[in-house]
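Predict the 3D structure for this chain.
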Amino acid sequence: MEQADVIVIGAGLSGLVSAWHAAERGRRVLILEQEGPQSLGGQAWWSLGGLFMVDTPEQRRLRLRDSRDLAARDWFGSAGFDRHEDANPRAWAEAYLDFAAGPMRAYLHGLGMRWFPVVGWAERRYAPEGHGNSLPRFHVTWGTGTGVVKPYAVRVMAHPRITLAFRRRVTALTVEAGLVTGVEGEILAPDNAPIGASTNRSVTGRFAARAEAVVIASGGIGGNHDLVRAAWPEARLGPAPARMVSGVPDYVDGAMLGHAEAAGAQLINRDRMWHYCEGLQNWDPIWPNHGIRILPGPSSLWLDARGNRMEAPCFPGFDTLGTLRRILSTGHAHSWFILTQSIVEKEFALSGSEQNPDLTSGKWLAVLRERLGKGATRAVEAFKEKGADFVVARDLETLVAGMTALTPDAPLDPAQIRAQIEARDAAIDGGAEDAQVTAIRQARRYLGDRLVRTAKPHRLLDPAHGPLIAVRLNILTRKSLGGLHTDLSARALRPDGTTFPGLFAVGEAAGFGGGGYHGYNALEGTFLGGCIFSGRTAGEGV
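Done. Predicted structure below.
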């Protein structure tokens, strides 16, 4: 039987952070990971590497006046905490805001992280109160998600007090006299499949390990659509989609959450979740049903499945869950962007380290070549050419015919769509006021958006900006906002609110802190940030 001071279940970002901080305190750490060495870093490796930070030098250089108080107003206006069990999640949110507005940047800078100088504006606020960021806070790390993972992975792999055990699938917690004393599980056969691809589940043996503390860092449920649908908040979002694409590999299956609950830990806020509306079927998939998210600028015309233009604040980049609810109200699980080549070149980005090789390289020359050259980025142009969700045409009637061919169960009326586009185009030319056109002009007041994220306003039907492009958008599963209930020291709690001795939870498994520190809505950059903050908290306390 293996023995350690601390066992960490999962070698994703939060697990690596927990293990390194614990080892730095002199603890002997055993990391158990069901995938192989190629999957070190988990979901974070695939991410764009965005971090929610407050009042940074990057913001100040762009004349953005941020503060902890303003960030708290945005966070709590978005979270909408309204449950008795939200006490710890709310406390975690307060603690993360202190971190993000205080030592976070210096701490990460000291580990070697650096950030792209243009701060992104995700989940834009539309109304004076409620959901959204009042200003840009999404700091993209040089190297994207790989650049966030690397400083921890390098330190973990070199640390003399950390042992990494791959292909170890934990199936139960060992509980003795109410105390978690270890784990047991299955040894899986080796598998050198590429990172993210499905691996075998052939069992070659069993194992057991003991420790004074066990940290669950196993992630959420986004790869298990059955669990997603079982937890789906139908009363709040509408019926669960019959079809979704997966924004995470299939090993993100929620199994460890079930094992923890079976042992006596409490799961809260299961119905709070974060799924995107702008998913594409990956033309070159790595994992089953692989989806990629578009990170759109504000200019694309967004239509529901019936061809109706969606109203404010259901514009690109504003209110993810509000737009999700609006899309599902049609009885369909898809929607449409209509845009031009000028918009796709300026505004379309794809989420993920593999879709942004220039940023992932961390080299300015690569970024300048990719972002300032003719056409959209190579990744976007590849989806436009090969992706199943794209329609490209020189005239609107041909475009709409192609859209209907993709979704024959939801045929579209060319005259209806033309009327809506012409009304929007008239506003560009100074006609009747249009809320989205106003939002586009406001976005361009921010230097970062004007430089790299928002196209100059123009008529969609202007052939000089063509061809026309339509994109079918799918619901893409991503994050669990609920999770294992923890106190401010990352200690897991029982249903009666008492501490479950010996058990800790971090990252997405803990709803990124406390069992759901986002509440109902996330402001983006808080997923990786939450993994780092909760992992650091646990590592310093185990």
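Residues 144-158 form the longest helix (15 residues).
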